[in-house]
Amino acid sequence: MALRMATRRLGSKLLPRFSSTSVLHSHATSFGFKEIPEEEKSRMVGNVFSNVASNYDLMNDLMSAGLHRLWKDRLVSKLNPFPGMKHLDVAGGTGDVAFRILETLNSVKSRATQDVLDDNLHEETQIFVCDINPKMLNVGQKRALERGLGEDKSLIWVEGDAEALNYKDNSMDGYTIAFGIRNVTHIEKVLAEAYRVLKRGGRFLCLELSHVEVPVFKELYDYYSFSIIPAVGEAVAGDRDSYRYLVESIRRFPSQETFASMIAAAGFQKVEYENLVGGVVAIHSGLKI
Amino acid sequence: MVRASLMLLKDAGRGFCKSLSQILVCPLSKQPLRYSEETNSLISDAIGVSFPIKDGIPCLVPMDGKIIEADDMPKADDAADLSSKNNQ
């Protein structure tokens, strides 16, 4: 399957063509296709991820035929990590994005000439892996060990809430959230917090499952999502419901354009998005100026 | 400010070191945190709440916070009330 990319750039004068309150309210009170009380969403999503944690990475490989690895590679390459950076990976649970950033930096280091200054810079690198679910973080810590990153002091695991982050204002060079924003209760709070913790010049990057409009492909993708994925979830993880939630939550999430407007509304400039695989995933980015 | 307390943050076995105090803050008040060795927790003096550290992972979700009272049993509900007040 060819990796098709389409980049759309949005001007700074965005007129929201949606009722933002209704979109946000609808997101906060939906659990997939179910309507739920707003205060319940966080707990219900928490249950899903506690259930899926141990099979999370295997299921990602199965559901995306391994493509999620390429999507995360793309995300990290857009980030342009540099030694000494402070980075926050939100909803980073099992560590995929954080490991890639570290490995990019470590490979840069080995290619550079030996320099005391460089070594000091590398020591200052801090990658915070922030997740609200401790089970996901524990899986991440184990995977870090398996990957030989267990002793790397740059990797810092923190249990935190994307809607109420525990980092100082203007402290981060980069912020990533991969396959996480779909699961939060209040998107606007997450975006506001992302804006708050980023330094001026800092980059916001979001990788998320998104909307496919390409005819025929859309129908195939819908069939795959609603018929195949929950069945695989049942067979592999013994959990059809959690995977049905995951698939439904993708459909309920705002479109690429709407989400881009929300990012701009949070104060970000140069808001863009890139579709991968016809819109199956999208990488949205913004800059804090 | 509370420079002396920064020296108290120690390596808790998994790379938890004092440079973190320069970035980590209380999720409710956004004020600095102080490491308490005796309770192995991070204290937000601004609002009198403590956050636990489990397996070397700081638990800095608002709901994890416990109000520090000398006599009362700490209640997670109070931290949730605080969190909803701050979110208004």
UniProtKB/TrEMBL annotation, chain A:
> Its principal location?
mitochondrion
Record GO cellular component, one term: extrinsic component of mitochondrial inner membrane
Subcellular locations according to the entry: Mitochondrion inner membrane
- Is Glycoprotein included in the keywords of this UniProt record? no
Q: Where does S-adenosyl-L-methionine bind?
A: T94, D131, D161, A162
Q: Which residues cross the membrane?
A: none
Q: Give the catalysed reaction(s), semicolon-separated.
A: a 2-methoxy-6-(all-trans-polyprenyl)benzene-1,4-diol + S-adenosyl-L-methionine = a 5-methoxy-2-methyl-3-(all-trans-polyprenyl)benzene-1,4-diol + S-adenosyl-L-homocysteine + H(+)
Q: Which is a GO BP term held by this UniProt record? A: methylation
Membrane topology summary:
Peripheral membrane protein
Q: Which pathway, per its entry? A: Cofactor biosynthesis; ubiquinone biosynthesis
SUPFAM superfamilies, sorted: S-adenosyl-L-methionine-dependent methyltransferases
Reported EC number(s) for this entry are 2.1.1.201
What Gene3D superfamilies does its record include? Vaccinia Virus protein VP39
Q: What class of enzyme is it?
A: transferase
The molecular function terms in GO held by this entry are: 2-methoxy-6-polyprenyl-1,4-benzoquinol methyltransferase activity
Q: What are the record keywords, sorted?
A: Membrane, Methyltransferase, Mitochondrion, Mitochondrion inner membrane, S-adenosyl-L-methionine, Transferase, Ubiquinone biosynthesis
Q: Tell me, how does this one assemble? A: Component of a multi-subunit COQ enzyme complex, composed of at least COQ3, COQ4, COQ5, COQ6, COQ7 and COQ9. Interacts with PYURF; the interaction is direct, stabilizes COQ5 protein and associates PYURF with COQ enzyme complex.
What this chain does, per the record? Methyltransferase required for the conversion of 2-polyprenyl-6-methoxy-1,4-benzoquinol (DDMQH2) to 2-polyprenyl-3-methyl-6-methoxy-1,4-benzoquinol (DMQH2).
Q: What is this protein called?
A: 2-methoxy-6-polyprenyl-1,4-benzoquinol methylase, mitochondrial
Q: Which organism is it from?
A: Lithocarpus litseifolius
Q: Give the lineage.
A: Eukaryota, Viridiplantae, Streptophyta, Embryophyta, Tracheophyta
Q: What gene name is listed for this protein?
A: COQ5
TrEMBL record, chain B:
Report the Gene3D superfamilies cross-referenced here. Answer: 2.20.25.10
Q: Which residues form a coiled coil?
A: none
What is an example of a Pfam family matching this protein?
Answer: Trm112p
Q: Which SUPFAM superfamilies match?
A: Trm112p-like
InterPro entries of this UniProt entry? Trm112-like
Q: Which PANTHER family match?
A: PROTEIN PREY, MITOCHONDRIAL (PTHR33505:SF4), ZGC:162634 (PTHR33505)
Instruction: Spell out the family assignment given in the record's similarity comment.
Output: Belongs to the PREY family.
Name of the protein in its database record: Protein preY, mitochondrial
